Amino acid sequence: MRTDNKTRWKTGKIISITLLSLMAILLLFPIVLTFLYSFFPVKEMNDLLGTRGNFSVDQWMDFPLSPSMVSLRQYYSLLIEKPIYLQYFMNSVFYAVVVLLFQAIVLPALSYALSCFKFFGREALFFLILLLMLMPFQVTMAPSVLTMKTLGLLNTRWAIILPLAVSPLYVFLIRQYMLSIPTDILEAGLMDGAGTVRTYLYIVLPACAPILGAACALSFADSWNLVEQPLIYLSELRDALPLSVMFNAIGESEKGVAFAGAALYILPAMLIYIYFQEDILTGIQLSDLK
Prior knowledge:
Layout: H1 2-37, H2 42-49, H3 73-81, H4 83-116, H5 122-134, H6 137-151, H7 158-165, H8 168-178, H9 183-191, H10 195-207, H11 209-224, H12 228-233, H13 247-253, H14 258-287
Helix pairs in contact: 1-14, 3-4, 4-7, 4-8, 4-11, 5-8, 8-11, 8-14, 9-10, 11-14
């Protein structure tokens, strides 16, 4: 009986590993192909992309896996000969960094207040945060545009930064994680004379390191992948657009450097995820316990 169970367990493990490996290959193949094609010569990529739509239904599209020669011409053309794309890339970096700095100041403090203090209207405020979290951008777009226009922030970089600085999703995640911190630890800190601010800085924030790392990675992805907000809020400020909104232009008029642009765009988000992957898994799992 034990032998049968052990055999079934091994069989199930082999099947699971095989299926997960196939899924990983399918998911990673486009990324690997993007980085590979970014080292192809520009002319070779123009010729390859020029064949799109010219195949019959009974013919497989050719996927060359090795260039005629390894070339960095795509990157040189993208970053040196056409500096406008480097400017868009730096705009994306600027938005991501500034939004993360604002969120690092505002969101943990707000979550701390909602989780550790009792005051009039706390539950109503948290309910409004949940309501905003569930609303898609398309619903809040018109009120946001009117608000930005009234405040004089439309067509400025602040129109992108300020709404993301108080993202309700990360308030919810951090607040739920803080609820899992034992109250005995907080009370012990207060009894030792730590005070509210020192308890927050030296007890709560270190204990919330996993969820803060997860929020940092997810927020970076949000800021890095902006599309609708820049097109709406920065319609008259084209020089401030991030790289994420310019891929259509690269794909249509600059086919030869499209893969280099995609590789440069993917790399920062991929590195951030690899660095924070344990925090993402740990933080979100523990946030779901409350």
